[in-house]
Amino acid sequence: MKKALYLAAFLALTSALAGAVLAGVNSLTAPIINDRAIAAVKATLQEFFPQADEFSELDFEDETGLITNVYQAKDAGYAYNVKVQGYKDVITFVVAFSEDAEIVGFKITFINDTPGIGSRVGEDEFSNGVIGKGSTDAIATLSGATVSSSSVVKGINAAKAHFNAMKGIKDDGTSVPDPVEPVITLGEPVVIVSDATATSPAEILEKTTDGNITTYRVSAKGYAVLEDEYSEDPKPNVYVIKIDDTANTVVSVAYETFSDTENIGDKTDSETFLKQFEGLSLSDATASVDVVTGATYTSISAARALRAVVESR
Amino acid sequence: MKKFFTGLILDNPVFGLFLGICSTLAITINLNNALGMGVSVILILIASNVIISAIRKITPDEIRIPVYIVVIATLVKAVELLIKAYAPAIDVALGVFIPLIVVNCIILGRAEAFASKNGMLASAWDGFTMGVGYILGLVVMSLIREILATGIVEMVNPFNDALIFSVRLVPAEFSISMFSQPVGAFLTFAVIAAGVAAFRDKVEAQTKKEAK
Amino acid sequence: MDKLFALFMTAFLINNIILTKFLGMCPFLGVSRQRSSAIGMGLAVIFVILGASIFTYVLYYSVLVPLELEYMDLITFILVIAAFVQFVELVLKKYSPALYKALGIYLPLITTNCVVLYVTLENITNKFDFVEMIVYSIAVPAGFALMLFIFSTIRERLDIATTPKPFRGNALALVLAAIMALAFSGLAGLV
Asked: What is the mean pLDDT of the segment spanning A21-25?
């Protein structure tokens, strides 16, 4: 019995000594650690609220468990530190609301997801769809980065819920997110009348003339019909092409029906791509448009449609 | 001297004795992390060896393991707090692996196997040599992984985030990002361990021949 | 409930402690050679981690935090773990001497098993509530046990097969771990 007491006492003494040493180190380092934590956040807070000069951290209750800190910028707004589970690892970010319930800041502070895919939530492509939104507006996820972006949206919604509750703003949940415009880059040019468009000629479905504008409805086979072995009932794309008869130039090319792959081929249904057709001269054998990178087949399908029009005149 | 280097490889705590594997696999993504961890471990190893050697005569045998653990844990926590305060970049990079140094088999292993039975100076030297072996293992592994995964070797000063140097050794097109993932970690470790085992066989065959 | 399930699956499989976090490698390489010791070790680890988690969790929130002694977490946690393992050892010795003998040296080694300390620390870092802590403390060692079991079945065969001499033993186990890590990385993004 005596031995056991002695052993326990020795261990206790050792632990007490250890505790004393640590208490000393802790008192030395704790203020520095605290300062660093606040400094890091303060820099971000200052970015979002440049006019504010006083920041404080608030106690908060959050059922979602996603909010890690809530800060108030005096007379300017509130900022939330949020942590969500992304695709491979956690994603942490800061989202800031102004006093008038507008999202004035959004910044990803840690992300470790796939570069070029999940990491897109850290880029302007995503934050442009967040900053400026109101606290009751819905945020759209990124197509092609669904897991990462929907986690981040969930986190933003948690912050919104807390902010709205705090401010007494009612969110009836009817807001529909604006879809995010996918980033479109243009690649190599395809000449309208060339080998590239020689195969699978397009079919003119209808031609109407109104004054000096002729409108053609053209059916052109795209990716779904020519390349996609998996789609059940592939249909061609249908374009509406308007030609200025006097100048013999293209007025516009637009989609009537798009049948190729969503989130890939439909990148061609954008002003960036379609605007290239405007003003092209039908008598110019070198007339060309640049294809949309990643949507080459669908871009060529549009070119084929125009070629059919050119060849019919 | 040759014996010293041979010992460094054959008795290498990581690749020869398979101690402290967890942190080796996780930390060695780049040189900075490897050095940060290596330096922390060697300091703690030397300090714990010295302290445990100093109290070895008064420590009751039955509770020696818990006592050693308390000593090591105190050192680790102190180092953790100091790193959080003065070199937070390392804290972010190493994360939970700093407190996990407590259960790094190398430290408790040396305390039990050597420091509890030898004088302070000898224990300090033992901590130093084991620590160097550990750092060597970490550095080799992290260099391989970093070069294969990114093509770049770089060092950042952890105290003020200033870049010390950054050298691109392999063009970016040849980088194999698999090596910054668990797969690459396991594979690199396996190959190095196999290399050490082959080296050991060779040395043993050599000594057998010389003994004849 | 949905959140708890996601927490369980993530800790058990997707962020598997051996294949993605590299923790628990030392006992892993030592014990995973035979199926029988693997199963025993796996169950023992689940029990130890669950018990240690509950104790350290309660200790942290009812003693350390009110007394502002958070920096003592490392020392107190590891002592609790050591004591708990000792306790399990005594119980096993008395009630199941066969298992006690089978585990041999590896039982006390659970103390230095990184996984145990890791789980107890993570319970605090992730600010889990009591239920989440329980779920996590079962899921993580269950993942460890699963890998231990799978590996032991494969290694039993590898030991009989002809393999390159330098790779025999641990190096080969690590190559195996690499392949499994690759296979399981496909689970990312599941929940």
From this structure: 88
Cβ–Cβ below 8 Å for B82 and A29? yes
Mean pLDDT confidence for A155-175: 82
Q: What domain range includes position A96? A: 55-167
Same domain, A145 and A77: yes
A16 occurs within a structural domain: no
Please give the pLDDT value at position A26.
87
Residue A297 confidence (pLDDT) above 90: no
* C-alpha–C-alpha distance, residues B47 and B75, integer Å: 8
Among B59, B63, B159, the strongest candidate for a mutation testing the A interface, having the largest count of A CBs within 10 A, is B63
Residue B2 lies in a domain: no
The 10s digit of each residue's pLDDT in B169-202 is 777 777 777 777 778 888 888 888 888 888 888 8
Give the range of the structural domain holding residue B26, as residue numbers without chain letter.
11-211
Q: Which residues of C touch B198 (CB under 8 A)?
A: 165-166
pLDDT at C181 over 90: no
Which C positions 128-157 lie with beta carbon below 8 A of chain B? none
Burial class (CB in 10 A: 0-12, 13-18, 19+), A48: buried
Assess whether A150 and A191 both reside in one domain: no
* Residue partners of B114: CB distance under 8 A and separation at least 6: B49, B122, B123, B126
Burial of A100 (0-12, 13-18, 19+ CB in 10 A): exposed
Number of domains in chain B: 1
Residue of B nearest to C171 (CA): B190
Does the residue B4 lie in any domain? no
Q: Is the pLDDT of residue A17 over 80?
A: yes
Residues of chain C contacting residue A66, judged by C-beta atoms under 8 Å apart? none
What is the percentage of chain C residues whose pLDDT exceeds 70? 95
Verify whether the Cβ–Cβ distance A18 to C69 is below 8 Å: no
What value of ipTM does the predicted structure carry? 0.79
Same domain as A262, residue A227? yes
Q: To the nearest whole angstrom, how far is the Cα of A25 from the nearest Cα of chain B? A: 6
Distance of CA A116 to the CA centre of its chain: 12
My answer on whether A227 and A306 are in the same domain is yes
Q: Do A306 and A191 share a domain, yes or no? A: yes
* Strand-pair partners of A309: none
Interchain pair B105, C177: CB under 8 A: no
